[in-house]
């Protein structure tokens, strides 16, 4: 097997699309929460975790389709490829990586269980022949996590090595939290409180302000 | 003959109490009070000690105060956000500097009419009318708020101060109180916060010519004005589409140059989001550590008018020494205050002669 890609290299390669994925999942989770809020009339209903996760993926998928390209239609004009997976699964390919997007709890990577396709995916074996150049892809797992009531909390990325029916069988080459700078595309303001100001080259004069002609030469007392 | 009010101005500007000044120059505190109210005139030696301690030339104390400069919206913050000492400091600094500007303007031709209306409408209607009066689109973001105000002859003064709980205050100045003035007093405020504060003060100028009623209510009205002025309701309904997320607000912050928290409040006030959704957004804001440090820096808009007239009269780079001589003020005070505005002094001589074609070299009177 080739050298496993380093997490920082993966983050840098995926930097252009991580904010889009994050925004999609954030919007999806907000839509899901909104759905359950609207059902509630006077008394609190528990959020169905399966439906909420489905709704999140459903709306995130809409966002990802808007921003990128869906390979289902056989077109090829977007920056990344969003593949079809039953039950509204999210699976996309970008540069030399493929990533399945799963919901996580307590920062744990889901167990493939009896799913042969998932097990093969975790073992870095090719399963989806409909993705072009699939042999050169590394399989990654993007994990999203919510915190109560149902707000997107974090996004992490993992490079799987193996996975079977048990928790112990799930082994990752690495698993890192995506830093905020990769999620929002911007850093928070400078910590010292200094704010950017008008630059000298941006100074624009007011047009109707000039020196009075009759007193162009003499000033000796202002106040 | 000196004017006691000038002693009070200089003393309060540097933040000294009467007692502290009296102790430092070796006189009884009541003497300072009497000097300031004009009941007694200090002897030459005491005057020299006062001038030395306060750092002002003696000539400063010999010129009368000729400007009517009310406290304006500083009155609203009398006991809440700002200490008496700080209030006096920014007030005296503003008054002295306004006199300087007023003096500059006697030598300047300015054909721009005064455009700011005084209205008795609801904050929302007043904001819509004010946008129209200032020549702004009814539903587009304001690119440069300070420049827009200056182009409509609203004087925006910046002080080189760092007040923690107050960013700006406003007042109508001059004969018949026809000159609207906004004074910026927090040099460290981020651009989005400063724009909100300026719009808030604009609301006071437009709506509250007479300070009547509950202060909290006046502040609420000024905030409602600021929200509608910076992001008109019709535009907000188009752009704040529920469910609103922090990432979307981050993009809107860049476009409308309003803080994420101000946009959240705007969405709440317009009932685009419920109070529960507002709470969710606030949870996330705190969770991401954005409450005190939001992402997306909005540049601070520095006022240009004062820098421009100083350059017209005193060249580029500005000859601060001559201004200090003409105004009888300490050069440090003049320099730091003018440098709080947008000036070309940082440009090289070649750049300023190429790019600053409007600048006329001032020919000083020969002694």
What does this protein structure show overall?
- The complex is a heterodimer of chains A (223) and B (367).
- With 223 residues, chain A is of the alpha/beta class.
- Chain A has a domain of 150 residues.
- Chain A contains 5 helices and 8 strands, in the order αααββββαβββαβ.
- In chain A, strands 1-2-3-4-5-6-7 form a 7-stranded mixed β-sheet.
- Chain A is extended and about 90 Å long.
- About 4% of the residues of chain A have low confidence.
- With 367 residues, chain B is mainly alpha-helical.
- Chain B has a 3-stranded mixed β-sheet.
- In chain B, helix 1 packs across helix 6, helix 2 crosses helix 3 and helix 7 crosses helix 10.
- The longest helix of chain B is centred in the first third of the chain and has 22 residues.
- Classes of the chains: A alpha/beta (223), B mainly alpha (367).
Please state the CA-atom Rg of chain A, rounded to the nearest Å.
25 Å
Termini separation of chain A comes to: 82 Å
Distance between the termini of chain B: 25 Å
Helical content of chain B, roughly? 40-55%
Give the topology:
The complex is a heterodimer of chains A (223) and B (367).
Chain A: H1 7-14, H2 18-39, H3 49-67, E1 69-70, E2 81-83, E3 90-94, E4 97-103, H4 116-122, E5 138-147, E6 151-162, E7 171-177, H5 180-184, E8 209-211
Parallel strand pairs in A: 1-2, 4-5
Antiparallel strand pairs in A: 2-3, 3-4, 5-6, 6-7
Chain B: H1 4-13, H2 18-25, H3 29-36, H4 44-54, H5 58-61, H6 84-105, E1 108-110, H7 123-133, H8 145-151, E2 155-158, E3 168-173, E4 179-184, H9 191-207, H10 215-230, H11 233-239, H12 246-256, H13 260-269, H14 275-287, H15 305-314, H16 320-327, H17 331-338, H18 349-355
Parallel strand pairs in B: 2-4
Antiparallel strand pairs in B: 3-4
Helix pairs in contact in B: 1-6, 2-3, 7-10, 9-10, 13-14
Task: Tag the structure with descriptive keywords.
heterodimer, A: 223 residues, alpha/beta, seven-stranded mixed beta sheet, 5 helices, extended, B: 367 residues, mainly alpha, 18 helices, disordered C terminus
């Amino acid at each position: 097997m080739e050298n496993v890609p380093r997490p920082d290299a993966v983050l840098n390669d995926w930097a252009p699309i991580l904010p889009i994925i994050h925004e999609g999942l954030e919007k999806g989770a907000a839509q899901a929460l909104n759905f359950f809020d609207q059902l509630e009339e006077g008394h609190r209903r528990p959020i169905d975790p399966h439906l909420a996760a489905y709704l999140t993926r459903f709306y995130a998928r809409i966002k990802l389709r808007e921003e990128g390209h869906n390979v289902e239609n056989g077109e090829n004009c977007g920056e990344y490829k969003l593949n079809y997976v039953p039950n509204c699964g999210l699976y996309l390919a970008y540069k030399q990586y493929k990533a399945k997007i799963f919901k996580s709890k307590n920062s744990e990577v889901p167990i493939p269980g009896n799913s042969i396709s998932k097990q093969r995916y975790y073992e870095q074996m090719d399963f989806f022949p409909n993705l072009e150049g699939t042999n050169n892809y590394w399989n990654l797992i993007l994990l999203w996590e919510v915190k109560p009531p149902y707000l997107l909390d974090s996004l992490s990325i993992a490079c799987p090595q193996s996975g079977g029916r048990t928790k112990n069988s799930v082994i990752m080459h690495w698993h890192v939290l995506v830093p905020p700078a990769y999620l929002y595309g911007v850093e928070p303001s400078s910590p010292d409180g200094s704010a950017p100001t008008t630059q000298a080259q941006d100074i624009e004069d007011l047009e109707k302000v000039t020196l009075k002609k009759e007193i162009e030469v003499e000033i000796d007392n202002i106040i | 003959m000196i004017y006691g009010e000038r002693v009070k101005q200089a003393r309060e500007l540097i933040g000294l109490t009467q007692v502290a000044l009296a102790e430092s120059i070796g006189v009884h505190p009541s003497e300072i009070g009497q000097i300031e109210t004009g009941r007694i005139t200090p002897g030459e030696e005491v005057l020299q000690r006062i001038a030395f301690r306060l750092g002002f030339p003696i000539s400063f104390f010999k010129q009368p105060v000729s400007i009517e400069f009310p406290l304006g919206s500083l009155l609203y913050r009398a006991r809440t956000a700002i200490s008496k000492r700080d209030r006096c400091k920014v007030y005296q600094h503003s008054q002295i500097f306004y006199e300087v500007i007023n003096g500059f303007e006697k030598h300047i031709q300015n054909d721009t009419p005064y455009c700011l209306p005084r209205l008795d409408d609801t904050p929302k209607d007043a904001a819509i009318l004010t946008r129209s009066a200032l020549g702004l689109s009814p539903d587009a973001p304001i690119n440069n708020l300070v420049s827009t105000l200056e182009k409509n002859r609203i004087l925006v003064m910046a002080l080189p101060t760092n007040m923690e709980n107050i960013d700006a205050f406003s007042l109508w100045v001059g004969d018949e109180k026809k000159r609207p003035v906004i004074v910026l007093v927090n040099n460290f405020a981020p651009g989005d916060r400063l724009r909100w504060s300026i719009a808030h003060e604009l609301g006071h100028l437009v709506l509250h010519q007479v300070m009547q009623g509950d202060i909290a209510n006046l502040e609420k009205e000024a905030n409602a004005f600021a929200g509608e002025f910076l992001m008109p309701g019709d535009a907000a309904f188009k752009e704040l589409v529920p469910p609103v997320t922090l990432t979307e607000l981050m993009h809107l912050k860049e476009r409308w140059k309003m803080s994420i928290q101000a946009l959240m409040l705007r969405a709440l006030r317009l009932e685009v989001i419920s109070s529960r959704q507002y709470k969710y957004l606030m949870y996330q804001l705190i969770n991401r550590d954005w409450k005190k440090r939001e992402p997306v820096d909005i540049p601070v808009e520095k006022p240009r008018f004062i820098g421009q007239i100083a350059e017209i009269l005193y060249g580029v780079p500005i000859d601060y020494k001559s201004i200090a001589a003409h105004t009888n003020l300490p050069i440090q005070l003049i320099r730091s205050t003018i440098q709080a505005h947008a000036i070309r002094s940082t440009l090289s001589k070649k750049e300023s002669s190429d790019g600053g074609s409007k600048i006329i070299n001032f020919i000083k009177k020969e002694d």
